[in-house]
């Protein structure tokens, strides 16, 4: 379902006028649109291992002599923060597989490497909370690297925006939005039914979009 379709469905359930567009919705429709959009953001943030929240890149370019890169400079506008950097590609086409060299703070970096201003082959990657990436040493030639990063939650804004989870899980957003309505309208019956339905549906979403582990002959969502 699209953003507009989700808003229309919630409006129909609670007796509000269904908007023909988010842009022209009345006051009640705007409130429902906020609940739906907020619900999708809440779901995205509820598990950092959802496959639609993780992006893999294999050809991000590092510039000669440049150590620190913003997400804009790396052409990764949705980057929230790095999860790992695990390959470095050299200009001759060879690739190094990096294990255990990724760090998360400058305190973890060897002093000699951190303060060595000489350009060389990058061997350490430091992630900052704002998404910046600093490589040590700074590159002595053009390199590319590959890794994974967590994306910034997508906010639904336009009528045709569609949540990234599989379509069969879009009703999870609907039921969470109904919970938000129930809090405002003090509707305990709707709160109970929508909460129960949401819990069932979020478990199914977890099974689809989270990594699975096998235990006792059954599959379980890992980390969600």
Taking Cα atoms only, what radius of gyration do you get, to the nearest Å? Answer: 22 Å
Q: How many beta-strand runs?
A: 10
Helical percentage: 25-40%
Can you count the helices? Answer: 5
Widest beta sheet: strand line-up: 1-8-3-4
* Mean pLDDT rating: 84
Query: Could you say which overall geometry the principal axes of the C-alpha atoms support?
Result: elongated
Main beta sheet strand tally, sense and closure:
4 strands, antiparallel
Q: pLDDT under 50 segments (min length 5)?
A: none
Order of helical and strand elements: HHEEEEEHEEEHHEE
Distance between the termini: 24 Å
Helix and strand composition category: alpha+beta
What is the percentage of strand-forming residues? 15-25%
Short description:
The chain has 224 residues and is of the alpha+beta class. It has five helices and ten strands, in the order H-H-E-E-E-E-E-H-E-E-E-H-H-E-E.
What layout of secondary structure does this protein have?
Elements: H1 3-14, H2 27-45, E1 54-62, E2 68-69, E3 79-89, E4 95-97, E5 102-103, H3 111-114, E6 124-127, E7 133-136, E8 143-151, H4 170-185, H5 188-209, E9 212-215, E10 218-221
Parallel strand pairs: 5-6
Antiparallel strand pairs: 1-8, 2-7, 3-4, 3-8, 6-7, 9-10
Helix pairs in contact: 1-2, 1-4, 2-4, 4-5
Please provide a written account of the structure.
The protein is 33% helix and 23% strand. The strands form 3 sheets. The protein has a 4-stranded antiparallel beta sheet with strand order 1-8-3-4, with no helix packed on it. A 4-stranded mixed beta sheet has the order 2-7-6-5, with no helix packed on it. It is elongated and about 65 Å long. With 224 residues, the protein is α+β, with helices and mostly antiparallel strands. The two termini are 24 Å apart.
